[in-house]
Specification:
Layout (H helix, E strand, L loop, with lengths): L1 E5 L5 H4 E5 L9 E11 L1 H8 L17 E9 L11 E4 L14 E5 L3 E3 L6 H4 L3 H12 L8 E4 L5 H12 L3 E6 L2 H10 L3 E4 L5 H8 L5 E6 L2 H8 L3 E9 L12 H6 L3 E4 L7 H16 L7 E6 L3 H10 L5 E5 L2
Parallel strand pairs: 8-9, 8-11, 9-10, 11-12, 12-13, 14-15
Antiparallel strand pairs: 1-2, 3-4, 3-6, 3-15, 4-5, 5-7
Amino acid sequence: MQAVWYERFGPAGASLQFGAWDTPTPRHGEVLVRLHASGVNPSDVKKRAGITLPNLLDDGPVIPHSDGAGVIEAVGPGVSAARVGERVWVYNAQHRRRCGTAAQYVALPGSFAVQLPASVDFATGAGLGIPAMTAHRAVTLAGPLADRTVLITGGAGRVGHYAIQFAKLCGATVIATASSAASRTDCRAAGADWVIDHPNANTATEILDLTRGAGVDLVVEGEFGGNFSAVLDAIRTGGTIATYASMAAPTPVLPFYKMMYKDLSLRWVFMYEMPATAMRQAIVDISAALARGQLLHRSAARFPLADTAAAHELIETGTARGGVVVDIP
């Protein structure tokens, strides 16, 4: 099969290789998916650059990317043959595994391949895994949201955009932050009730005005260390922060007593290691929303498999508004 892989960490153009790779055979409990699209996420780019998982290459070269979509062509022992021919989106393909979705085929546990409705194309399916499942977990981990208010920072980001939609489907009032006119438009299109500037010195005052002094019940935070001080006063007593990233300030200093006096809950969201029950519920809810046509998706760019390096470089710019997908020939 054709595939992209890397044998050493480094810049995309210097480390990613394109060529022939042995087609995998599904083992017990696995399915073999003929991929049509591969989703590229910031975590894939960080792994390839060597920013995370320094031991990743100890067992050999890695085919990157955790997300993708295609058709099941074969199944291993223990998997019903009825799944052959099923259109699927896949997640966690490269987590704790060497071979991800930047290839024509991937073999992975059957539970990691989720039925994709005929109304949803493969490029869209390839962009669901990490962004949609992270968003679902962040939005739902604090309990029911009906009649509650949620603040979603970076609402135009890949995770934030889905988080707005899931929060609205759960019955919440949503405040999103954005940094540009285009991003504000995306947040409103996703369903945000109010859109304000990215967290700054005026954020707490704005949010308290919007909520008539009540504050927000849940914060879905994509830049924890950088935004924390600006949003802390906007969270009600007993509220929750669900955070999935802190790139600008990876080692934040926390005001212990201020957090304690507000009885805050701080929850970490790492999609790869979500509890099994949370993964199952995310799949159920994402599948239902897809079937009903309730999710709005965005595509930033598509690249051929041979140009996967260009896809990684676009992610690294931080300017991609929407999913970045590699088309598989």
